[in-house]
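The material for today's practical consists of a large collection of protein records. There is nothing in a record beyond a sequence line and a structure line. Backbone structure tokens are a discrete shorthand for how the chain folds in space. Nothing more is needed to start thinking about how sequence determines fold. As an example, a complete record with its sequence and its structure tokens follows.
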Amino acid sequence: MKIYLATGNLNKKREISQVLPDFEVVIPKEMGIDFDPEETGTDFYQNSMIKALDLWHKARSLEKTPPLVMADDSGICVDALDGRPGIYSARYCPELCHSDEDSPERPKTAFCTKTGRAVATTPARWYC
């Protein structure tokens, strides 16, 4: 069974494929789908639904039955910034956040670069 994953991130595809080995996980680019929905939600849930519905409508024309679609939205929430950047994480430091680089240091580097503050002294959490 095929699952359309609402992302362009190859690392997410790899991770989901490992968790769901009985499914064929595909991303829009592999299926020739133009996918770049405008994330206009006010929270992570709304943005993930925007992505899921956009991909569902596009993938529907490729399948005989309604497709299975999986989406997420994630970001770093920093206490010292009142939870920001939150849903705006990818826009906060795009040169670091839009990458297939699989590094746990990437969010920390983005935060330090943008704020000049050390992550070790600033509580934060990755929300997904």
Q: What stands out?
A: The mean pLDDT is 82. The longest helix spans residues 44-60.
